[in-house]
Amino acid sequence: MIPKIHKQGTNTYGLLNYLYGKGTKEEHVDPHLVASYDGSAPDPGRDEHATLTALQQILDQPLQLLDTEQRPPHHVWHCSVRAAPGDRTLSDVEWADIARRMVAATGIDPGDGAACRWAAVRHADDHIHIIATLVREDGRRPDHHRSGQRAQAEARRIEADYDLRRVTPGDGTAPKRPTSAEHHKADRQGRERAAREELRTAVRQAVAGVASEDEFFARLHAAGLLVRQRVAPSGDLLGYNVALPDDRNKDHEPIYYAGSTLSADLSLPRIRERFTATSLDTEHEHPASSTRRMPSAPATARRSATHATWTALLTLDHDGDGAAAARITATGEIVDALALTSANDTDTHRRLREAARAFERARLIHTRTEHQHAQALRQAARELVYSGPGRGRGEDGATTAMLIDTLLFLVLAAAHWHAKRQHAQQAEAARQAANHLRAAYVAAAEAPIAQLREQGRQVIRRVSDWYAVQLRVVLPDLADTVLAEASWPALVATMAQVQQTGHDPRTLLAEAAEHRELDSASSVSDVLVWRLRRMADLAADPGTMHQRSGTSPAPVPQPSSPRSKPGVRR
C-alpha cells in the first residue's frame, strides 16, 4: 500500500475535473465515489443528476463560511493511495474503509464530528484519490502535521489487516520521483526514463571519484549536459543547475534542475564534502585538458578497484556508522564508474546500469558521512573513469568479472548493515542491486570461466584428485558443494596456476574462504577462483596469462609440497 500526500492546491473544481476525467491517456475507467465525509456526497461519476460543481460546493462550504482574509491560501488537500504491484484487486467497500482510515490517521477526519469535508474517488483498479478541504466544520484548521509519515504508518497496518504486500517504509531520504506529467513527456519524446532521472544518473557518474569543482563541471560538460552555475554577489559559487539539451519547455528553453532537487546528496556543498575530505591522486585530469601521462588501462584499473573493494568489504563497519556510510556511498561510485566504462551494448553493461540505479537508494541515509574513510574506494572509482571504456573481452573483461564478484559481496554486506539499523528501503535497494550484479557477473564471467573450466579438464586426473583432497582438508564444510559445481575444473586450473607461480594453494585457499561468508554465492567455486587469482596476482583472463607467460594451456604440476611465497597476503 503506497500513500502519497500531494502538494496542497487552490482549485477544488480543477482537481475534481481531473479525477473524474478520462486522464491524460484515457487511463481513467469508471470514475466514481467510494466514500465521503458523511457518506452522502453527490457522485458525478454514477449519478447523472450530480455535477462536479455540486460536489465542489459541498466540499468547500466550510471555506466559504470564513471571511476572505481568514481563508487558507492553499486549501485543497490531496492524497493518493495505491496498491503495491502484485496485490489483489480490492473492492469498493475495501477502498472505502482504506479511505476512512487514511483521513483518520492523517488528521483530516479524526472522528470528532467537526472534521474536514472529504471525498474518495476511484478511477482505476489499483488506487484511489482522496480530496479534502483544509477547513473544519468548526472553522479551525485540521491537525495534519506530518501527514505523510502518519499515512505511511497507517499503510503498514492496512497491509497487515488486508494481507497485502508489505511495502518497505521510507525515511524521507529518497530523491523526488518524476511526476506523471514528466513520465508522459518522456514517453512522447521516446525516452527510456524521465529527464530528471537521466540527469541524476549523469550527475552521479560525474561525481564518481571527482576531486575538485573544476573537474566536476568539466565532467558534466563532457557528458553533454547544459550547466548553469549559481554565483553569489561576492563571486562565491553557491550551486549549479543542469539540463538535457533536448528537454525544453513550450518556449523552447532548456528545463534546468538544481543538483539538490535531483537528490539531496548531489547538492554542491554535499559534493564538496567528498573531495575536501580526501586527498585523491589528481594526476588524472579531464582528458580534454590533460597534458600528463595517459590513464591506466581498463584491466589495471579494475584490478586496483577489486583490491580496494575487498579491503572495504573487510572493514565496512569497523570504524563506526559514519565510516560505513562513507564506504557505502563510495561503493555506489565504484558501481557508477564501472557502469560508465563497461563495454556498451552488452548484457554486462545493461545490468551494471540497473545495479547503479538500484544502489542509488542504498547510499541515501541520515547518518553523517565521514568521507575520509572511503579514500581508497574513491581513488579506485577515479581510476576506473580515467582508464577509459573497457572492451569487455580478454583481460579487461575478466577483470570486470573479478571486480563484479567482489563488489557483489560488498553490496550484500551493505544490505546487511542497513537491515541491522532498520533502514528498510536502503536494505531492499542494496539487495536489488545485488541481483543485478549477479546477472552482470554471469555475463562478464562466461568466457573466462569457460576457458578455465576447459583448462581444468585437461589437468591429469591424479593431480585433480590431489587438489580435491587439499580442498577437503582446508574447507571440509564447503568441499562437497564445490566438488559438485560446474566450475570445480576452473578452480582446479587456478590452483594449478597458483602453485606454478610458487604460492601454496592450500594457504591461499584457506585465506580466500576466511573472510566473509560464502553462503550467498551462487557458485562458491567461481568466488574462490577470483579470490585466488587476485591474491596470487594471476592474470584474470587465462588466455592472456598463457600468451604472456608462454605456459601450456593446461598446467600440470606434480602433487608435491608447494613452496610458500612470502608477501602474498593481500
**What is the string of helix and strand elements?**
EHEHEHEEHHHHEEEHHHHHHHHHHHHHH
The shape, in one word, is: elongated
Radius of gyration, in Å, reads: 29 Å
Number of helices: 21
Can you count the beta strands?
A: 8
The CATH topology of the domain at 2-162 is given as BirA Bifunctional Protein, domain 2
CATH class of the domain at 2-162: Alpha Beta
Q: Roughly what is the average pLDDT, rounded to an integer?
A: 89
Q: Strands, helices and their partners?
A:
Blueprint: E1 2-5, H1 12-19, E2 32-36, H2 52-64, E3 76-82, H3 92-106, E4 116-124, E5 127-136, H4 147-162, H5 180-189, H6 195-207, H7 213-222, E6 226-231, E7 237-243, E8 257-258, H8 259-262, H9 268-276, H10 298-315, H11 321-341, H12 347-362, H13 375-387, H14 394-420, H15 424-458, H16 461-474, H17 479-484, H18 488-500, H19 505-514, H20 524-535, H21 542-549
Antiparallel strand pairs: 1-3, 2-4, 3-5, 4-5, 6-7, 7-8
Helix pairs in contact: 1-2, 3-4, 6-7, 6-11, 10-11, 10-13, 10-14, 11-12, 11-13, 11-14, 12-15, 14-15, 14-20, 15-18, 18-20, 19-20
